[in-house]
Amino acid sequence: MSEESLDINSLEDKFIVIFDGECAFCNASVRFIRKHNKKDNLLYCAGLSETGQKLTQRFNVDISPNESIIYLKKGKYFKFSTAAFEICKELDHFWAMLSFFLIVPAKLRDKVYKFIAKNRISIMGKTDVCSLEDSKNFEGKVLK
Questions:
Q1: Beta 15-19 vs 42-46: how paired, if at all?
Q2: Across the 144 residues of the chain, what is the mean pLDDT of every consecutive 10-residue run?
Q3: Which among 3, 36, 39, 139 would be 20 to 30 A from 93, CA to CA?
């Protein structure tokens, strides 16, 4: 999708993963999601990109993309562990079954999620640039 033709309103019925484009852990997670999304129905967007900012404003997301992965699904947004397990529903085989953990109370799931999120940069480091934009595996799937 070219930036010139991108209409934020046209994305309301899409499945969009908004992530921290400067975090190596987040970039690796998105590459994993892409590899296992056999439905090929997900789009990806770095949260600090112009489109990421417009999307979070348009959908009134009340959290920064560098605090949580954000998943927009047909005009509704999910954050923290709920986003992660909702994304699992779009993955193949075993990975889709992980969405079963949505039955665990969000408060408990989110404690674990926030612990990992808080330490993700120390786990894998930071990157200067979103590594997905130049990847052939993401051609036509990254919103800039």
A1: parallel
A2: 62 91 84 94 91 90 81 93 97 96 97 89 71 73 87
A3: 139
